[in-house]
Structure formats: C-alpha cells, structure tokens
Amino acid sequence: MKGARRLVDLLRSKQDNDKSLGQHFLINDELIAEAIELGEVTRADHVLEIGPGPGVLTEALLATGCKVTAIEIDSGAVAHLGQVFAAEINDARLMLQEGDALKLRWPADVTKVIANIPYQISSPLVDQLTKQLRSTWRECLIKVILLVQEEFAERLVMEYESDVGSLGMTALIDWQSDIKVNVAPHHFSPNPKVNSCFIEMIPSHESFPVDKRLIKQIIHQGFKQRRKKLRTSLKSIPKRLNRIPDWYSGRWKSAYSSLLGDIRLDARPEELDFDDWVTLAHDFTKFAKCDTKGSQ
Ligand code: SAM
User: What's the pTM?
Assistant: First the structure.
C-alpha cells in the first residue's frame, strides 16, 4: 500500500489542485480505514466510488479484494489513477471511468457506494442515488457511505429542529440516514473551510399507499415557502407534477380544493412529521380521483 499522503503527493507532483472540482483529498489513513469498516466491504462487493482523485480510498477499497467502479471528472487524475492502478485495471478489478458522475451511466450491480464526494454535487447525487435505488439497484444495493460537509449531513438526518426541511424529509422516503464520524478540516489537503462527516445511508425499502414521487413533490412544494402555511404553498402546482403518472394540474387543483377545510393546511411545513406528509399525499390521491382523460 502506498498510503494516502504518498498518493496525494504523487498527483500533486503532476498537477495543481483544482478547487472548482472540490479537490480536498483525505490524508489520514486511519479515517480511510474507518470508511472501509463503516462500509463493511468484502471481496463479494462491487463498490461505486465517485471522485477517486488521487486514489486514496480506491487503494483501500481494492485491498479488501472487492471490485470497484470509480468515476472521476478530472482527466489528469484519471491518467494518474490509470498508472497507479494499472494491474487492477488489467485484472478488471477496477473499472475507471472519466466523466461527470451525475451524467454517466452507473453499473447495475453495485452493492455499496463509498466516496469522499465533491461537496457541490451532494444534493443532486443523493437524488441520483435514490433514482438508481428505485430502479436497477433495488435488489443489490446494501449501503452508501459518503464523506460530506457537516451542514449537509445535519440537514440530511435532520439533526436539529432548524435542519428539518425538504432534503431530510424526502430522504426518509427511501433511506435511513445517520451521521457516523466527524472529520475535522486538518485531515484533508488542502484543508476545507468547513467540518465534514461520514454519513451512512441504508435503503429502507418501505412501501407506501401512494406514489413516492407524489410524496416527494408535496414535501418540496410545502417547504418552498417554509414560513407560509400549507394552504398557501400547496395552492401552487409543482412544476414537475406531470412527471408522475396520472397527475396533472387539474387533478392537483381538485385535490387541493377538496382539502381546503382540512386543518392540516393551517400548519407550516416544519410542523408535519414524515407520516403526516405521507398521509397528506395519500389524501391528495383519495380526494381527487384520476380523470382518465388527463385533462389539464
Ligand atoms: N476520493 C478522493 C479523496 O478521498 O481524497 C478525492 C475526493 S475530492 C473531495 C472529490 C473528487 O471528485 C475530486 O477528485 C474531483 O476531481 C472529483 N469530481 C468533482 N466533480 C466530479 C463529478 N461531477 N464527477 C466525478 N468526479 C468529480
């Protein structure tokens, strides 16, 4: 094993650090070992790593004997990884892909996602993980371990009352999320200005009496104007409503009108817990039967 410091220095000897890509590299081998332990990685796993950079996590993952698919956007880092891990690439134990992880197709048989991600893609990445979990990863994904900014982690798990919001509430539809380990800035090179955390996300596979996409859109719509009562925020039709089968603006308006006398609409979004949102979404469905003509 080369170890984190040497891999980071090796990449640095070839190119400067690109801050716009969130390049804060982990240099503490103990924390890297902790990530592998949190992921309970075994040789049976196929791990997806987003943003391998110098390969500090990649090296530790490969040492467990698992298969890794690593997606990196920086072509200099990809060339470096290609040299460092030439043998593993040759043995098809490391599949290295160059490109934007949010745009490339992910393998269908991933069992774990373990990554120190660029913090600027945290929210869209969670959305993408959720989409994948609901489709090709339904049967295979066991867990996700991500190193993220502390503030994002707290909103995801809704650590404090002030963190209650759309991100954490919608994540509950598909995941049980937990903050596992706090990581201070000095464990990275260069040091970020913020604290970080390892989070764990376990698929909950919970089923609901209503389309998950409708629950998500009602939560989003409710939190769009978080100081307003739901009566006001739910009056507007979610922009992406027609992406949900059988939903269109006329149906939303009719559901909203049927619920106008309901005292839940006098609440502000943070006053509803997750079960309340599910029930509200279900009631939206019940009170506005689908018009098969799909009128607008
Ligand atoms: N995994 C390494 C570590 O733990 O030190 C590097 C982590 S660094 C925080 C994030 C990495 O993601 C960088 O190497 C950066 O180039 C890469 N990256 C940034 N945006 C990306 C994207 N959209 N898709 C794939 N990789 C990306």
Answer: 0.95
